């Protein structure tokens, strides 16, 4: 309201706020309802979880205690599966970062021949939906003898994360001034020194964004994890959650509690790195 | 193997003597090799092998004869047309809402991004339980307020598909709203001021300032969203499992269904059948991105 304040400006301000609230409240309810429902189940005792109440009469942390102590046959490997999720996500993050940084440096700074072609192939892989690559990938992993090993999932997720990672890093490194490389070369730097001493430090924010992107992609993945892994001791948390659905007598409140625990780390990581994510990813994602 | 290939290509054709590689060329090739290997082993080979397995015309005859397949094609098209247009329109409108500078709008924008930030599985399962006809939260509230039984959300095919689309929108709306917001923030404030001076209404400002600046981005986002939605496995598979009676499958879940029934040829034929939808969209995106 920068306009000169004529009589009635206050009332009009209130009216605008009321109109905004008319949009804001439904948006809030729509957004929060499934997440609140998840939380509601996790603090409800077993007999009250399905009572249809919006707040349980006796909220309890008992579900969390059961999950943390693995006191249910569905949860026998909870901590192991949590570790599996973490290990696979971390490996995917690291491997993607290595492969993508090398490729982006090679394409963007060293201007390697066929770099443009490789970039286009990577972009193509990025655009084709992962769900359609899942079945061929499943068969291929069988041929390679990797099926039902965690490396199958790590390599598959790295394959899915790398194209976008390369593209974002290439966009970012194209923006670095070319004089930097020239100065380094005049000073007698080898390409490796250029990479380590000039390129990596300057690219740090984009590297964080890309690493977190790959990590979250792997942590959140359900389809590939469910196709490529099967043993209870190998699977990640989302597959274990999906397995709850197979049984008729599933303890829903424990499933929801486990789901909430599984959902918290990526949400925290997302908010902590939001600054990097939005700067590194959204600017690159859609050029107008 | 690819190192040798690259080296052979690199030799200047006119001279038999190989010029030694410069350090930059050597390192450039070496650093590109890891990704090239990943691409060959985990993209190119699976794709070629997939096409090879899907080469029999009989698979396609069987596939087109399967009513579940025909229904999935219809469902996929409905998903694309309805869900995406509703989602992108909402994103466009909500991005305007989030431009307002209020403390509570700022807070709401932080909460609003949650569906995008949390993994799909727990929240979709949460919706699934919420919509349970007997003890789900929604129908219990429905009964308490109307004294009538609520709809059988996930057991009526069209209603179940609508719910799957709602879940899809719930999950991805924040991302696209953020995109549109980024686009709107890039529009110069001078344009709006100039429009105000000329006495433009809100609608005029949107029509003649916002929309012209946003439309390229809006269409790019729509196409990108179409490609991703074609591959949206989770919203359908985790909410309805393709049911009731396999009537809510989309192409992305149908391939996995055939795989679980051990009909690998039908599964890959489904993927091949999705390509006429996917590839033109991918082509448009490639052109836009490599500009």
Superfamily (CATH H level) name of the largest domain in chain A: MetI-like
SS class of chain A: mainly alpha
Shape of chain B: flat
> Largest chain interface and its two residue counts?
A-B, 97 and 99 residues
**Main sheet of chain B, how many strands, which sense, barrel?**
none
Span between termini of chain B: 31 Å
At the fourth CATH level, what is the homologous superfamily of the largest domain in chain B?
A: MetI-like
Q: Class of the largest domain in chain A, according to the CATH hierarchy?
A: Mainly Alpha
Structural class computed from helices and strand pairing of chain B? mainly alpha
Mean pLDDT of chain A: 86
In the CATH scheme, what's the topology name of the largest domain in chain B?
MetI-like fold
Write a structural description.
- The complex is a heterodimer of chains A (288) and B (291).
- Chain A is mainly alpha-helical.
- Chain A folds into 2 domains: 60 residues, no CATH class; 209 residues, MetI-like (MetI-like fold).
- Chain A has 12 helices and no strands.
- In chain A, helix 2 crosses helix 11.
- The longest helix of chain A has 34 residues.
- With 291 residues, chain B is mainly alpha-helical.
- Chain B has 2 domains: 53 residues; 223 residues, MetI-like (MetI-like fold, Orthogonal Bundle), CATH 1.10.3720.
- Helix content of chain B is 77%, strand content 0%.
- In chain B, helix 4 runs antiparallel to helix 11 and helix 13 packs antiparallel against helix 14.
- The longest helix of chain B has 31 residues.
- The radius of gyration of chain B is 25 Å and the shape is flat.
- Chain B starts with a helix and ends with a helix.
- The N terminus of chain B is likely disordered.
- At the A-B interface, helix 1, helix 3, helix 4, helix 5 and helix 6 of A face helix 1, helix 2, helix 5, helix 6 and helix 7 of B.
